[in-house]
Amino acid sequence: MRVLLIEDEEPLRVVVADSLRDEGYRVLTAADGVHGLQTAVDQEPDLILLDVMLPKLDGFAVCAELRRRGQHMPVLMLTAKGLVDDRVRGLDAGADDYLVKPFSLAELHARLRALLRRSQVQGSGPSEVQLGDVTVCLAERQCRRGKIPIAMTAKEFGVLQLLIEHAGKTVTREQFLDLVWGYAAFPTTRTVDNHIARIRSKIEPDPKRPAYILTVPKSGYRLRVGA
Ligand code: CA
């Protein structure tokens, strides 16, 4: 597993990188946002540890730009402030989780393992699913219309993947929160609805009248099969 650590404070960068190497990860490092983004795109690490306050390009911008370029690896934001605003901004930018500084190395390692576990593609089932003219490639965690990639955040893809895994059956909002978000503190069922709306706008021919992702009243959502 390759982890990219984007952190400008050198002492912290050294300590974290060493501890990750001790845990058996291969570690890439960058000390500013521009270099970090370039390294992420060039090297496609399995996971990114991303500081918020960075020279040249901040962590929010790095994360948003990665997602815009169709990179779906898990991103764990390192925020110094711990403000709700920062967490929301990070999650909105496409981050998967956040850790408030100062954090313990043990907690960092636990979060990394959880994120990597969640991002592993299940071994069974089809590797590609066709929804109209949209192809969902589960192995590569990418969607495309024809040959054109559709930018999705890791969470949006996770929601879509869960629907595909349960095609034809209702997935409740609680199941989404449990299985896609996996930690109870921040998201609300409204978060699920917002993600569904964004996915519909990206893959549905007419997002106002969904052909694939159907609403199940008072419960959740269901992927129509054979549509
Ligand atoms: Ca910093």
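^ calcium ion complex. Residues 8-9, 51, 53-54 surround calcium ion (CB under 6 Å). The chain has two domains: 2-122, 128-223.
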